[in-house]
Amino acid sequence: MEWKGRRGSNNIEDRRRMSSGSVGRVGGVGVLAIVIIGYFLGVDLTPLLNDPGTSRQSSASVELTAEDKTAGEFVSVTLADTEEVWTKVFREQLGTTYRTPTLVLFKQGTQSACGGASEATGPFYCPTDRKIYLDTGFFVTLERRLGAKGDFAAAYVVAHEIGHHVQNELGILSKANDVRQRVSEAESNAISVRIELQADCLSGIWAREAQQTLGTIERGDLEEAVNAARQIGDDTLQANAGQRPMPHTFTHGTSEQRSRWFVTGYQSGQLADCDTFQTNTL
């Protein structure tokens, strides 16, 4: 991915030098790592997503490494690309204006309108404040622990969370989450899968436009994104943690589903083709 020396976004809120460590309720459907860590430890950590009573905070000054600074610049450029792409897609396909989100960079921990964010929560989108929260240390986890290497794998993570913002702008996220509050856990998980697969599809639309309009995609980039989608499929994560995959517990979709929906968005480029809620075959 060609990103060095290119325009960054003005919608970055960098909190990395002074972070507030916290463990508590985590908002947003795009939370990946708390589930991932639970799989690796063989412990169900998902109750932390909904428990507002387990909050612990501390403050400390944080030094940024050269790697931190580079990662921040990379995220800023990637975010700027999503802004250009989604402004164009909203104008051409919907005849409306795309409202850009803010991306919060943090290190160790911070607070969101949806609750605490920490190294354990991973990247997530909070629809309440319309912000994405990202500790770029997750990119290291993505590469070293999950086997998803390459800068475009990291860009896919950002694009996926932006996909949740797009869902929020379209009114999809709030409706889906409202239904999730009124159904059983298994049904809620099934809706979550549809939300996540749609975000994967939307990230595919971004990749297509980044290639065709911005010309930033290099040889091998798409393979990196597809591989990342495969590596964070629920079945793969559970299997790699030594567990038998249990479909009723899936919240993000299988490796095959995640990679296929990304490719669907990339090949189509049309919002209508990312409607995971109207299909009987995910």
Give an overview in words.
The structure is a single chain. By secondary structure, this protein is α/β, with parallel strands linked by helices. The protein is 49% helix and 12% strand. The chain has one domain. Strands 1-4-8-7 form a four-stranded mixed sheet, with helices on one face. About 13% of the residues have low confidence.
Element layout with pairings:
Blueprint: E1 12-14, E2 18-23, H1 33-41, E3 56-61, H2 66-94, E4 102-105, E5 109-112, E6 115-118, E7 124-126, E8 131-134, H3 137-145, H4 151-169, H5 172-180, H6 185-214, H7 221-231, H8 234-240, H9 255-268
Parallel strand pairs: 1-4, 4-8
Antiparallel strand pairs: 2-3, 5-6, 7-8
Task: From the structure above, extract its key features.
282 residues; alpha/beta; four-stranded mixed β-sheet; two-stranded antiparallel ribbon
> Largest sheet, order of strands side by side?
1-4-8-7
Q: Sheet bearing the most strands, described?
A: 4 strands, mixed
Amount of helix? 40-55%
**Series of H and E elements:** EEHEHEEEEEHHHHHHH
What is the straight-line distance between the termini? 29 Å
By DSSP, the count of extended strands is 8
Structural class of the helix and strand makeup? alpha/beta
Content of β-strand: 5-15%
Q: Categorize the overall geometry.
A: globular
Helical run tally: 9
Low-confidence stretches: 22-58
The tally of domains stands at: 1
For this entry, what is the oligomeric state of its chains? Answer: single chain
Output the radius of gyration.
Answer: 17 Å
